[in-house]
Amino acid sequence: FLDSGDVSAARAALLAIARADREAGRLDAALDACLLLITVDPSDPALQLEIAANQMTRGWSHLAGEKLRLLGRLAKLEGDDPAVAAIAAFAAEHGLDPPGADSGPESVAPA
Questions:
Q1: pLDDT score of 106 more than 90
Q2: d(Cα 19, Cα 10) in Å, to the nearest integer?
Q3: Rounded to whole angstroms, how far apart are CA atoms 30 and 71?
Q4: What's this model's pTM, rounded to 2 decimal places?
């Protein structure tokens, strides 16, 4: 898809591959799919949330929390209300404080 320039199809396919690989326990393969997509659209909230999900699965909650904090700031700056809601839902689902809960770097530390 990327070779043909169909970024939307590539995005959908790579996110589906990343989710399937993560759910099957193939975390390195899942991350590879994310890293391929990151070259196309690094600020895509769905992609960044998939990377955070991979990090949570690996037990890297601090990294996932930091990613959510930064992604939440970006989404708010861009006025991307659907992304802000998705980030808050992800945080709640994974037991993390929502981005912006406080102003410190630990604002999305594990609950």
A1: no
A2: 14
A3: 20
A4: 0.81
